[in-house]
Amino acid sequence: MPETAAASVPADAPRSGLSRRGLLGLALGGGVASLAVGVGAGLAGGVALGRARAADEAEDAYAFFGPHQAGITTPVQEHLHFASFDMMPRTDRDDLVSLLQDWTYAASRMTQGLEVSATGAVGGDAEVPPDDTGEALGLPAAGLTITIGFGPSLFENEDGDRYGIAARRPAGLERLPAFLGDDLDPQTSHGDLCIQACADDPQVAVHAIRNLSRIAFGRAKLRWSQLGFGKTSRTTADQATPRNLFGFKDGTANILADDSEALAKDVWVAASDDPGWMAGGSYLVARKIAMLIETWDRVRLSEQNTIIGRDKGAGAPLSGGDEFTAPDLSSSKIDANSHVRLAHPEENGGVRILRRGFNYVDGNNDLGRLDAGLFFLSYQRDPAQFITLQRKLSTDRMNEYIRHVGSGIWAIPGGAEPGSYVGAGLFA
């Protein structure tokens, strides 16, 4: 669970300030492909977690179109539904393009608090399945962001170059190498495409994935998904630093949305980078990190502080100061293999990443222990940034209490322009 370094106000998705009621006349154009019944992504326990934000905050809507996709520097919401998809066999380039067009159209509506199409859940022919599943009827946008990405296998897999895009695959977009301590489940790793849906209402986030899965029917199938709650990082200065399930403040030194210098250097792909179609985009790494909760809970407090390198209560580095004081890595009070030391940019050639992680609890395992942990999400300009950092963490004392059980990497193209679709530059 790397801790990253520095800075508010989202750079990629400005607030529209509009609610569902204020957007009923929004003219988005286009249409949704004929939808088939199926593929609902289960509501699971996360939906029951309640509405964490005040009603006026829940009215927030973020613009879908823009130079960057929303959901990266946007203020981290309270809930996540992440989904990975594989394209169906015998699909062609036209199927892929039409899917991205349909996803873009539906996402641009749902992020504004609208249904997936003009007829929606109840406005169409009563003798056919409705376009929208309806569980978000009457709910505001709740800060929903939808972020779409392309996995390495979309460009080429065991069937070859299915969509004529292998030559345009970014050089760094490869499955992550094996890291010490990995215990990955292939059934909850990787995927041709991914969608990250974040919102301040869990039902809004689940509705988004459920409906985008329906839209994909016949072209792509859900490979795996993950619900998350209780953000474990912040992306704006006015957000309090949240805590992970070990009880420690997490992401104190995260890159923030108003730190344009850090974003340009460490998060956004530049126009001068190769390939050009990724300009304005980023690379997303997802890691499902199981926490050995019961074992950790039996560790004395002083040892927990030493393992992390911070005070559990205040979040301050053990070298002194407050939460936002830079740790003094020359101090003997910070253990050589503490998480804070190993994750610090000074120990990694200046490497920094932007984090958007979430807690998860998936019930309990066969031993009656919590199946819980961190669903780690990070954005970086180059996948090598994450690889460098993760390799450095191989001696992290925290590794005794965590297991990496899921993994994936996706190229996140820049934002779409009105009238176009996410990833259009790849097919230009």
What this model shows, in words?
This protein is an alpha+beta fold and 428 residues long. The chain has one domain. 17% of the residues lie in helices and 18% in strands. It has 9 helices and 9 strands. Strands 1, 2, 3, 4, 5, 6, 7, 8 and 9 form a 9-stranded antiparallel beta sheet that branches. Helix 2 packs antiparallel against helix 4. The radius of gyration is 21 Å and the shape is globular.
Keyword list:
428 residues, alpha+beta, nine-stranded antiparallel beta sheet, 9 strands, 17% helix
Q: What profile does the largest beta sheet have?
A: 9 strands, antiparallel
Query: H/E element string?
Result: HEHEHEHEHEHHHEEEHE
| Regions with little confidence, pLDDT below 50 for 5+ residues | 2-58
Instruction: Please state the average pLDDT score.
Output: 89
Sheet/helix structural class: alpha+beta
Which band does the percent of strand residues land in?
Answer: 15-25%
Q: Which descriptor suits the 3D outline?
A: globular
Tell me the Rg in angstroms: 21 Å
Number of domains: 1
State the distance separating the first and last CA atoms.
37 Å
The tally of helices reads: 9
Count of extended strands: 9
- How would you classify the quaternary structure? single chain
Which range best describes the helical content: under 10%, 10-25%, 25-40%, 40-55%, 55-70% or over 70%?
10-25%
